[in-house]
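Bumping my old thread because nobody answered last time. Still need a sequence for this structure:
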């Protein structure tokens, strides 16, 4: 019998055990790459999410619009006609002072406030006010009111002192957490402003 002998390779010590180490040249043994993950599930998931978001958006818009505006819907109207009277509002009726206050322009309301609680110099300066805008809408976030006067010139005009008095009177009549009143001349130039 003959035994085949295979050539023996000298045993190499394990790395880190202190012995000469041999560098291997060549390519490392073949390692298969991991299989690629399919992105189809991700694409389908985001597609469905987009469709659901679209329908939610349509629902929000429809709810905010208050309906479809169909003029044939007379459910509440028929009940009011059948009962023989109109439904009353839950709001209390406005007093005559409130009604007259609503019919005044913003400039007239501002002048009335200054006439009631302003100083003599403020009352004199407010006579030059021609128009007030933005005083009726306040939300305490970024309120901006404009007071227009018959003054001429800009920031360096001779009427700047009176414009500052008007701005001061405005801050006495109106309150806001974050408001700015600007006083303009008849030519549209800014003369003064103040926080109110």
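Sorry it took so long. Here it is:
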């Amino acid at each position: 019998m003959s035994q085949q002998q295979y050539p023996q390779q000298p045993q190499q010590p394990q790395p880190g055990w202190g012995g000469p180490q041999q560098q291997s040249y060549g390519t490392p043994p073949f390692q298969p790459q991991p299989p690629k993950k399919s992105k189809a599930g991700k694409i389908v998931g985001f597609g469905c999410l987009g469709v659901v978001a679209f329908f939610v958006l349509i629902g929000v818009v429809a709810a905010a619009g208050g309906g479809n505006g169909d003029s044939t819907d007379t459910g509440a109207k028929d009940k009011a006609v059948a009962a023989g009277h109109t439904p009353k509002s839950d709001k209390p009726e406005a007093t005559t002072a409130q009604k007259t206050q609503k019919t005044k322009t913003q400039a007239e309301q501002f002048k009335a406030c200054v006439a009631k609680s302003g100083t003599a110099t403020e009352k004199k300066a407010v006579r030059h006010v021609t128009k007030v805008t933005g005083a009726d809408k306040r939300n305490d976030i970024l309120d901006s009111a404009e007071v227009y006067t018959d003054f001429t010139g800009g920031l360096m005009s001779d009427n700047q002192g009176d414009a500052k008095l008007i701005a001061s009177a405005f801050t006495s009549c109106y309150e806001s957490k974050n408001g700015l009143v600007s006083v303009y001349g008849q030519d549209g130039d800014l003369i003064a402003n103040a926080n109110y």
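The longest strand covers residues 143-149. Let me know if any region looks off to you.
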